[in-house]
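User: Can you predict the 3D structure of NADPH-dependent 7-cyano-7-deazaguanine reductase? Sequence below.
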Amino acid sequence: MSGRSQDEGLKDLTLLGNQGTKYSFDYAPEILESVDNLHSTRDYFVKFNCPEFTSLCPITGQPDFATMYISYIPDKKIVESKSLKLYLFSFRNHGDFHEDCVNIIMNDLIELLDPRYIEVWGKFTPRGGISIDPWCNYGRPDTKYVEMADFRLMNHDLYPEKIDNR
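Assistant: Sure. Here are the predicted structure tokens for NADPH-dependent 7-cyano-7-deazaguanine reductase:
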């Protein structure tokens, strides 16, 4: 059983363990839930790899497919993973450009968690012979994480990675 107590953020969760999960087919940031970070005295990364992200082109309505990578250094809260899965699923019928999707995801997670640092990278499969891989990040203002964000932004594509999702 969990080492967490109900007072450490578990009592407010509505999705985890719920057998009657409803899937939203429209963008739904209100689905996101968080729990207390029991290790807020140290820096550490949490990374989510979401290989089944889909959204729609806002002009043609054609589907776009991506692997979405979300990495963050939490402060007081961490995102509950089932709510993140359902939130990402809610983009299924959402029409936006790739660059908008990664920035919307990052902004919603910043609002929910107030993380020390976060980055979101979408590796979209090609359509029309070209792939688009937008990457965005954020470091909490007036902290060392601003310098980290600047450094990672300037160097994130210095050593191109092996693309294996397409």
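Residues 29-155 form a domain with the GTP Cyclohydrolase I, domain 2 fold (CATH 3.30.1130.10). Residues 70 and 120 are 5 Å apart (CA to CA).
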